[in-house]
Structures are given as C-alpha cells and as structure tokens.
Specification:
- By secondary structure, the protein is mainly alpha-helical.
- It has one domain.
- Helix 1 packs antiparallel against helix 3 and helix 2 packs antiparallel against helix 3.
- The protein is elongated, with a radius of gyration of 14 Å.
C-alpha cells in the first residue's frame, strides 16, 4: 500500500510540475495588475505547499 501511495504522489507531482511549466505564474507575479499578481502569488504558494507534502511521501 505504501508503494501505491508513493507512485500516486509521484504521478501527481509530475502533473503539477507540468502545469508549472506550461503556466507562467512568475511572469504574472512580475508583470500583471496587482489583483492578478496577488492571486498568482497565492496559487504559487499553494502549489509549493502541495509539492512539499507530496515530496515527503
């Protein structure tokens, strides 16, 4: 069961990494209007938090 959890976590992490590559949140954080910057920053923080959890599995 632990192996299945690790495989699932790695799969989700790979999908998150792909999403990060195709969306340019850093660009939005640097160049967008203040409201969009704030939301992009929150999304990036949440993504990083999720990635840390998945990497610890």
């Amino acid at each position: 069961m632990d192996d299945l959890g690790k495989i699932l976590a790695q799969s989700i992490l790979a999908n998150i990494n792909e999403i990060e590559e195709t969306t340019n949140l850093d660009y939005l954080i640097k160049n967008a209007e203040p409201d969009i910057k704030e939301e992009a920053s929150k999304i990036k923080d949440n993504i990083n938090s999720i990635k840390q959890i998945l990497e610890s599995i």
